[in-house]
Amino acid sequence: MSLPVVILGAGGHARVLLEALRSASRQVAGIVDADPARIGETVMGVLVIGTDEKVFDFRTNEIELVNGIGSVASTAKRVELFAAFKAHGYRFATVVHPSAVIASDAELAEGAQIMAGAVIQAGASIGMNSIVNTRAAVDHDCRIGAGVHIAPGVTLSGDVRVDDDVHIGTGATVIQGVHISGKSVVGAGSVVLRDVPGGVTVYGVPAREARK
């Protein structure tokens, strides 16, 4: 039997996750948020029960956590929060919206989030704490690292490798066999035709590295 979940964060991504959790019949015990002013609010009928420290009122075997922090360009805050609670022994739920299509041999690591209408094809793997957002497509044999955000409408062709902490913006397309190295950002709507080095931002059609 699945444990109840506590959602970290009360913003837009948290609301999308809440809908996915309800669609999958997961029990939500509450929401926590870093802003103490939000305590006592309700988000889609679920109470904000405290700040992040409220999680420690629950034993590690009583709940699972859901990382409700989204990312726009940088995944750093989301990655930091995940690591902090993992260090205290908490486990993160893997969230899959019922409308997502996932191949029988695809691999989803702890804390992966697969949102409505997403497609994960044969042989693909999604790393810990990564998001495959609304209607994104991850084709065969792609390898997605930890802490990655694949934004809504992204298309990854077959055998793409995405290293840790990468953000791929809304509607971007990555052709087959490309390797995107860690901590890089792919701008929204870009078309990536060649490998992307680590720690850079690329954008455009075709995608090119942004000038510093």
Automatic annotation (TrEMBL):
* Active site location: 140 (proton acceptor)
- InterPro entries according to UniProt: AcTrfase_PglD-like, PglD_N, Trans_hexapeptide_repeat, Trimer_LpxA-like_sf
Highest taxon, organism lineage: Bacteria
Q: Which residues bind acetyl-CoA?
A: 149
Transferase as UniProt keyword = yes
Question: Which protein family is it in?
Answer: Belongs to the transferase hexapeptide repeat family.
Question: How is this protein named in the record?
Answer: Carbonic anhydrase/acetyltransferase isoleucine patch superfamily-like protein
**Native source species:** Geotalea uraniireducens (strain Rf4)
